[in-house]
Design a protein that fits this description.
By secondary structure, chain A is mainly beta. Chain A is about 0% helix and about 50% strand. Chain A contains no helices and eleven strands. Chain A starts with a strand and ends with a strand. Helix content of chain B is about 0%, strand content about 55%. Chain B is globular and about 45 Å long. Classes of the chains: A mainly beta (about 120), B mainly beta (about 110). The interface of A and B includes residues 4, 55, 107 and 111 of A.
Chain lengths: ~120, ~110
């Protein structure tokens, strides 16, 4: 029973490039959350998605960041025109309605470095 | 708005000693509370959770936590520290009906001395 998968695990981008982070939730889970962990800080909520819908994006920066969770395929977090301040670990978590959406299962994270 | 405060960004204990990691929360409704552990360069692993059942919650690896509503606390304890417990620990809170997005504390790094 595979857990939450994220790829790539490490991503290096130059300033101004685009970063695409992928998350495949646990089998049977249709709810995905993205969190960002800046160096030496706790995780901060970014966005909550269900299949084909953004439910809560209150933690997303207003510009350059977008997320999607299509009917087929992984959830994607896209960062356009990256800046050095985007360097962080990005974690995806998934949950299912059978568990009342209480417990979230985390992936290993994507560590983005902007040079 | 929900918030979590973890007292002590670094805690150091000797192997075999009691581990106590402190967490206080604020929430406008009865919360769900969680403790996660993170090893270097890895994701988060759930240690235990409180979901309004028993106030004393037992988790994996010998950890437990007690929900105290009057103190708005959810401190994590383990009777005897092991070297493998060295990691960073995060307390988190969520509210039912908010999509259960998690609000995390800043984390506590636990160091275990031999």
């Amino acid at each position: 029973n595979a857990g939450v998968m994220q790829n790539p695990r490490h991503l290096v981008r130059r300033r101004g490039q685009e970063a695409r982070l992928r998350c495949s939730p646990m089998k049977g889970h249709s709810h995905v959350y993205w969190y960002r962990q800046l160096p030496e800080e706790g995780l901060k909520f970014m966005v909550y998605l269900q299949k084909e819908n953004i439910i809560d994006e209150s933690g997303m920066p207003k510009e350059r960041f977008s997320a999607e969770f299509p009917k087929e395929g992984p959830s994607i977090l896209r960062i356009q025109q990256v800046v050095r301040g985007d360097s962080a670990a990005y974690f995806c978590a998934s949950s299912d309605e059978q568990g009342g959406l209480i417990e979230q299962y985390f992936g290993p994270g994507t560590r983005l470095t902007v040079t | 708005a929900q918030s979590v405060t973890q007292l002590g960004s670094h805690v150091s204990v000797s192997e075999g000693a009691l581990v106590l990691l402190r967490c206080n929360y604020s929430s406008s409704v009865p919360p769900y509370l969680f403790w996660y552990v993170q090893y270097p360069n890895q994701g988060l692993q759930l240690l235990l959770k409180y979901t309004s059942a028993a106030t004393l919650v037992k988790g994996i690896n010998g950890f437990e936590a007690e929900f105290k509503k009057s103190e708005t606390s959810f401190h994590l304890t383990k009777p005897s520290a092991h070297m493998s417990d060295a990691a960073e620990y995060f307390c988190a809170v969520s509210e039912k009906g908010s999509g259960n997005k998690l609000v995390f504390g800043a984390g506590t790094i636990l160091r275990v001395k031999s």
